[in-house]
Amino acid sequence: MLLEWNEEFNVGVESLNKQHKKLFETIRLLNDSVKLGKSEAAVKEALGRLVDYTATHFSAEEAQMLRSGYPDFNSHNREHNDFLFQVRDYMADLESGKKVVTIEILGFLCNWITEHIKGTDKKYGPFFNRKGIY
User: Fold this and answer.
1) Which ranges constitute the DSSP H helices of the chain?
2) Which of 10, 71, 117, 124 has the most C-beta neighbours closer than 10 Å?
3) Could you tell me the end-to-end alpha-carbon distance of the chain, in angstroms, rounded to an integer?
4) What is the C-alpha to C-alpha distance for residues 126 and 12, in angstroms, rounded to an integer?
5) Distance between CA 64 and CA 75 in Å, rounded?
């Protein structure tokens, strides 16, 4: 599963673009851990990094929204919370031995992130730009 940054993902705010690029990198690390058959510990570590970095990114994005008075904050925040709940659920399952990270889970992660950035996140770019945030 290849997740590469391109201009299609540009939200118009450089700091958030950099965070999205880091998010892509973190998903690729998880993907590599799974595809290369690395140990369960390595997969757990990669998924843990993804959970941690995603939470950090969402917090930064939401803080910017609150500072700027972004009108769609509540729905955006709900999407973030739903995603974090799902990814933390995957992590709990992995830690308890219920299931392993599979190609289907990686597909979910890649699809959610790309659709969220190209859809939901793209909406805040023009709003932030009008507020002088680039």
Assistant:
1) 14-35, 40-68, 73-96, 103-115, 122-130
2) 124
3) 30
4) 7
5) 15
For the stretch 45-64, what's the b/e string if a residue is b when 16 or more beta carbons lie within 10 angstroms of its beta carbon?
ebbebbbebbeebbeebbeb
Q: Please tell me the distance from the alpha carbon of residue 68 to that of residue 27, in angstroms, as a whole number.
A: 29
**CA 109 – CA 51 distance, rounded (Å):** 11
Q: Is 62 helix (H, G, I), strand (E, B) or coil?
A: helix
Give the global pTM. 0.92
Q: Which two tokens stand for residue 89?
A: 């659920």
Residue-wise pLDDT for 65-82, tens only, equals: 999 999 999 999 999 999
CA distance linking residue 45 with residue 42, whole number of Å: 5
pLDDT one-digit tens code per residue, 113-133: 999 999 999 999 999 999 999
